[in-house]
Amino acid sequence: MDAAGDRQAIYLGRIPKKAAEQVQRRIEEIVAGRIAGTANSPELAAWIRDLPNPFHRKLLKVGLVEVRERDAQVTLGGLIDEFLARATVKSSTYTNYKQSTDSLRAFFGNNTPLSEITPKRCDEWRQFIATDTEGTTTKRGTKDNRLSTATQSKRIKMAKSVFSRAVRWGMLPASPFAGMKAGSQANPDREFFVTREATEAVLDACPDAEWRLVVGLSRYAGLRCPSEMVEMAWADVDWGRGMLTVRSPKTEHHGAHHAVRHVPISPRLRELLAESFEFATDGEVRVVPRVQDNKINLRTTLQRIIERAGLKPWPRLLQNLRSSCETEWCEHYPIASVTRWLGNSPTVALKHYIQARDVHFEAVVAGAGRRDAPDDARTTHLTTQQAAAPNRKVLPRSLEDRVAKEPTRHEATAGEVMRETKVGPV
Fold this sequence. Notes:
Layout: H1 17-36, H2 42-49, H3 53-61, H4 69-73, H5 76-86, H6 91-108, H7 119-131, H8 149-168, H9 196-205, H10 209-220, H11 227-230, E1 237-238, E2 243-247, E3 260-264, H12 267-279, H13 298-308, H14 317-330, H15 335-342, H16 346-353, H17 358-365, H18 375-382, H19 399-405
């Protein structure tokens, strides 16, 4: 019974009986002090001070203790402000952080105590970002103006990271987002392979040599635009070896070849580099000075160039140029070499860059492939030693199992002798 005579309940969970009796005596002492109007004893005050946050909130809920000073300051807004202040990331990544944290502020409220953000409320926030159709600044990519699945996943991962940091800093005993699955950030619906024919049409529509080089570096060298073009100088172009030295601000914190990598210069890219070098002003150090000016919106201008070329702008204009380059290279060169040239890992490349193309599907349907290989390759395949005969003491496997797992001969040369075996009841 509290000081007002009302019955209250405090659930302790599964603890030993003696521990529960100690808690009961402390609570009775607190209630007695409230009724008598006396201050807590030093021993009781120390006990209250050292209570774990979850149990302190239980006593706070029934009015037995006061709000701790440190608890009163921990609001969602305070956590987000501190998280952003300690973030050591690039400006573009910081912008993504802001977008995710702003959605948390918009749903929960900036002044909401962290203790009031429960797993149930987190599930409601997830539903909110999945169904909200009111864009903040620009029209979203989906038809109904909702966030894409990949963007939802990115924001969930950001929220989990923010609240995990709160746990590490001692602001929360556990994260309310701990059990939430973020899902994949891959978005196949926004993949688009830019063919060489389409690229050349865009190059013809570019207003000058510098714009042609921006498109060429993205499509024929797989550079990130604009981050990897900002610091590129003419000294990084090795004309003799056909090698381009690229510095990547985005991945430099990974070290090794992620900070500086070497990209091969294809014949078409060499033509674009030579043209831009010829038209460069005297004393110009940068390869693409245009990307230094933050006032120029590269994406908007490129979209107009694509429309001028008579093409429909594709999703993720610059990213899909890089993705198309990596996809094309992986069709001809080992993925280990290609990912080294483009500065990502095979896992990331397969998940976010390399695209499945319809032309490969159509080639299989048309019969292209192994049977169209040169004669020497076919002969090598036919003369390869076959597997040893199975042990007759072991029961034979089913016909279906043998067909599925054992190698078969599809062809035989004129001089081969074919063995005939009768098919059993199976």
